[in-house]
Amino acid sequence: MIDVEKTIESIAQKHLSIETLETRNSDSLDFHDVSAWQLRKALLCAFEAGRQASRSKPKKDKSSKEGTCYRATIEASYQDLVDIWGEPSKGDEYKIEAEWVIRPTRDTAIIIYNYKNSRAYDYNYPEITAVREWHVGGHRADVVDRLLKMMAGRAKLIQRANDPSSKD
Question: E strands within 9-160?
């Protein structure tokens, strides 16, 4: 995304020979004579900067949980997850009661979360600390293998999303 103020100031400096666009409370510093061709060039540059900005699409932040989806189900104890990743964040406190967002690199996110299997969802289900099945989410399928390596034997793969008998 472009910085509008920096772009405008840069155009003013380059094409209009105006040092700054800040108000300096002095007629000799705040008012400038410019030629029509200088003004035309500055306006064309501003137009082109706006056009380029509208064409560029913001890149998806791969370190965010936004845009992730279910990739697998693992078996692990709540306590093992807390020991490895710390206390979980609260989910929506209905379908998801606990979740961990893990960022192994700047452009990767792995999410571990319970889904409709704890007391928050149904009183007949176990407390969150007794849950053993956890969903794994991510932007790409390879996050599952990466997570299993990171957990060093403290989690077991139950099911992958590409499995025809997948739950989700």
Answer: 69-75, 89-90, 98-102, 110-113, 133-138, 156-160
How does DSSP assign 137-156, residue by residue? EESSTTHHHHHHHHTTTS-E
What average pLDDT score do residues 5-12 get? 90
**What average pLDDT is seen over the chain?**
88
Task: Read off the pTM.
Answer: 0.60
pLDDT of residue 57: 53
Per-residue pLDDT at 136 exceeds 60: yes
Round to whole Å and give the CA distance between 26 and 33.
15
Structure tokens at 41: 């060039």
Surface-to-core class of residue 121, CB atoms within 10 Å of its CB (0-12 exposed, 13-18 middle, 19+ buried): middle
Token pair for 47: 């137009």
Domain ranges of the chain: 4-55, 69-160
